[in-house]
Amino acid sequence: MMHRSEKAIPVLMILPSLAAIAIFVYGFISWTGYVSFTDWNTLVRSSHFVGFANYRFLFQDFRFQSDLRNTLAFTVLFIGLTMLCGLFLAKMVDSKIKGEAFFRNVFIFPMALSFIVTGVVWQWVLNPTTGVNLALKSLGISHPPKWYTSISIVPKLHLGAIDFGLPVAVIAVVLAAVWQMSGFAMAMYLAGLRSIPDDLREAARIDGAAEKQIFRKVILPQLKPISMSLIIILAHISLKIFDLIYAMTGPGAMFVTDVPGVYMFETTFRGNHYAQGSGIAMIMLLLVSLLIVPYLISSFRKERG
Amino acid sequence: MHRQTAPSYSLYLLLVVLAALFLVPVYIILVTSFKGASEVTLDRMWHLPASLDLSGYRAAYAKLLPNLRNSFWLAIPATALSALLGSMNGYVLSKWSFRGSNVMFALMLFGMFIPYQSVLIPLIQFMQQIKLYNSIPGLVLVHVVYGLPICTLMFRNFYVGIPTEMLEAARIDGAGFFGIFRRIMLPLSVSGFVVVCIWQFTSVWNEFLFAVTLTTQKQQPIMVALQNLSGSQIVQWNVQMAGALLAALPTLAVYVFLSRYFVRGLLAGSIKG
């Protein structure tokens, strides 16, 4: 049995952390939300309430509409490619190869780098006049891709103020991001593959299943929880991505590689449009929350049940 | 019986090709960083340097040294404080849960996922108010606070695995809240500390958004200074690549020496606890 005084100590010990989170997370978010409803769009602070004016501006804004399109394109490509690469690499590394540790390390090391370093380096690797294109030209390809300097959007569907589709320039940024994160996906899948008991595979084999079928019908379903976690982690990285794009391409011509994170930074800290910046930040938070809140709730239910 | 037949040559070939592709950026960094300014031309980008020229490193080192120092002064205290607070929180939440502690934990975890843009404007005002704006201690505070969710989660997952019977036995022997923490939890969680410290050191070292908005000039950590190198008028690629390597060296070293823990840290950090 616990004494009354003993019961208070744990609460006291965790209280400072809880207070810090209450202020730095919830307090500050509320404050940002409040600012987004004001007209504080100059250096001089203003708390004049203007309702949804900043949000209305953003949703009609060419740049912000482009940002949402780019975020969608980036998120889909980044998650899809990272998971495919990760699964593929994990499957290969798991095949009882020699030098497993070496290959594993080569595929994971980009994870230790900063997005800034990745951005700086890939900016040169994919520079249209240098880098990969030099190699492609020496192979006889006379019109190599323009990478992040391309302004084409495919298919070009005019929607609102923007052309909707996949901005080709986004592919370059996705390549850098996939390079950085696919080792992480591989590590997760590797852990998953190794936790599947061999008996499961054996049983399927005895039933006469081919290796491909075993992979599709036995292994993939077992990896589903890991895939779910990966989608959550990668999506939340991609919805708030800032540093990689800031270091590698910036907004790009016609904002083909711009994202809300970059727009928020520039409009707030270069343009002093604090209310608009707050509006962008709140929309980013909303996007992430739509993904994270259901996930947190469901994982807590699972833990209790 | 083993689950697979011996791997084939084509598998090795594919692995080697993929590994080479993954290492292309590393090759580019290395060959460029060792070239002299006159040798860094577009058409010779893929060539090996004619001779080892260290001027890129010398220039990068001279420009980035103060910022490298800042980053160490930032990342080491921030890592240590995060780990200490995280272990205490994890201990309370796993072994001394109280009414409402689960809800609080969930509310805390949410802080791990928020885009930091959504707290940035008030954060800057707050830091100015408490006179920690544009200072390394200010950045330490920020990283400790926003590191609380992930560190708490990692320690909580780690402590859940320590059997409660051990704690009860210690209690019968007269150990209290702190006694149990010091004599049982801490000694048993050395590897937990290693994992959390690797994770936290890497994220603080690599972080950019807080660093670029909360510091200027002399107070900037290395990542901001590296980004500024590339923003300058004439891009000196050899200096920039040398700088990128210098900036990445500490986390790469952590990774090379502790990669096994690093992977474990990634898994522990991946909310599947």
From TrEMBL, chain A:
Keywords: Cell membrane, Membrane, Transmembrane, Transmembrane helix, Transport. Pfam families: BPD_transp_1. SUPFAM superfamilies: MetI-like. It is a multi-pass membrane protein. The keyword Cell membrane applies. It is found in: Cell membrane. InterPro entries: ABC_transporter_permease, MetI-like, MetI-like_sf. GO terms for biological process: transmembrane transport. It comes from the Bacteria. The chain crosses the membrane at residues 12-34, 71-90, 102-125, 164-191, 226-248, 274-297. GO terms for cellular component: plasma membrane. CDD domains: TM_PBP2. Residues 68-297 form the ABC transmembrane type-1 domain. Belongs to the binding-protein-dependent transport system permease family. This is Sugar ABC transporter permease.
TrEMBL record, chain B:
The keyword Transport applies. It is found in: Cell membrane; Membrane. PANTHER family: ABC TRANSPORTER PERMEASE PROTEIN, GLUCOSE IMPORT SYSTEM PERMEASE PROTEIN GLCU. It is a multi-pass membrane protein. This is Carbohydrate ABC transporter permease. The keyword Lipoprotein does not apply. PROSITE patterns: ABC_TM1. Residues 68-258 form the ABC transmembrane type-1 domain. The lineage of its organism: Bacteria, Bacillati, Bacillota, Bacilli, Bacillales. It holds the Pfam family BPD_transp_1.
